[in-house]
Every structure is written in structure tokens, then in C-alpha cells.
Please model this.
Amino acid sequence: MRMTRPSRTDDLEEREVDLARWRRAVVALWWIPVAGLVLGAILGVLFSFRGGTNYKATALISLGQPTSPGGALVNGFGTNPRAVSQIVSSADAQAEAAHRADMRPAGLRGHVSVAQVGAATGAGAARSTPLISLTVDGTRSSTTAAAANALADIVIRKTTASYVGVKIRTFRLTLESVNTQLKSVNTRLAILTSATKAAKNLDPLQQLVIVSQEDNAEARLGNLIAQQETLQQQLAFATQVESAKVITAARSLKADAHSRNSSLLVGALLGLLVGLIAAIVLDGRTRLTP
Model:
């Protein structure tokens, strides 16, 4: 016996009949979808209150751009933005930050995020200094900000600050030595200047010796001043540009755990959907009941 397949026209007619029945059911039992809409909106608002209040604290970090003694850029672990994510997600860093913030390390797991701010593209991307946004969210204002600042300090310590720190210490020691020499030369030059004024009664050869010593002291003073200026510029560049530092310290800002408006909208839509389904099912059972 040959079986026949239902035609496509029959399928379309059945679908139209179903849609018409559903539409009649919704119109007849309109109060059920409306009740679902209202009840869902109420539950959505209640759910938004249930979550309580969260706090977010964000620190802005510059990873710096260290250079070699020859002036070439040094691209390594310390200047890689991905390194920051690995550092702040490590158990050691979170344990240290939690201890400094007087909280448990478990309170930081899954609550720390890192993002690169204003990532450069094109030819200048390789020479741009990475800016990192480090965010911690929590339920307490004080501990959230403290944890974010502690993690920021750890990032600085473990990236470019260690390498550039050696340069900064060297520049400061050398500058201190130059400043000491400047004081000595200025004292010597003052004595020679006084001697020159008092050397009018001396013979020309003695006057020439004093003037020559004074010229040498002035030349030495000029060289030391130039060296001092160079060291001051190098020290400023190392501290302000090369080394990682916190641009903006973290401060806690209140943020609702669940958006009230979005919770209301989602709850209302879900309630309306459940109400529509309930109206269609109830209408179908009513029709089947003799």
C-alpha cells in the first residue's frame, strides 16, 4: 500500500489554524498575560534589591617605556600589557594584596579585571607607553579600594620599576657627587676671586698664577653645571617616563549589583511570555474538557 505525504498546503493551513487559536486564546484570557507582566516586573525589581550594593575601584597604571644605556627602547616582560593580567591573577599577588587590604584572598578571585586604555594602532603603536586600567569589585568600599591600590603597587614593583630603579639610584648617587664637587669648586673660586683682588701688589708672575687658577676653577665649575643639568634631565626622564607608576589611585565607587531598570524589563518580558503560554495551555484544556 502506498502512503501519501501531507502536502505543504496542509501544513500551512494547520499552522494558520494554530496561530488563530492561540490568538483567540490570548484575547479571551487577556488578564493572564497582563498578570504575568505585572508579576514579572515586581519580581524583577525585588531581585534587583536582593543583590545589595557593589563597589568598584579602578587604578590607572603607566607601565613606562625604559631605554637602554644607548637610548634604544627596551621591549620586554615589563612593558607587555598581558603581563599585568598574569601578575594580578596570580595567587601570590592576590594573597599579598588581600593581606594589605585586610580581607581574605578568596574575596579577590574572579573580582579583578585588567584592560588596556587607548591602545595605539599603526606605526606609533610600538613606541606608545601602555596605560593599564586595573579594576577590583567588592562588597566593601574600603577593602575594595585598598586591594586595587595594593595590586597596582605590585604591578609596578614587578614590571619596569625594578630595571629603571637601578638607573634612578645611579643617577641620584652621581648627582649627589656632582653637587658635592660644585660646593667645593664654588668655595675654591670664592677664595681665588678674593686673592685676585688682593694680588695688585704682587709681581706679574704671581698674579698670572692666581688668574690661571681662577680660570681653571671657572672652567671646572661650568663643566660640573653642565653635568648636573644632564643628570637632572636623565633622572626626570627615568622617573616620569621610563618607570612604571600609578597615574590615578583607586577610589571606590558605588555600583548596583543588578540594574533596577534592566531587572524590571527582563522580569516583565519573562512574566509576559509565561502568561502567554499559560493562556494558550489553559484555553486548550478548556476546549478539550467536555
The radius of gyration is 38 Å. The helical segments are 8-28, 31-50, 81-88, 91-100, 141-158, 160-197, 204-242, 260-288. Confidence is low (pLDDT under 50) at residues 121-125.
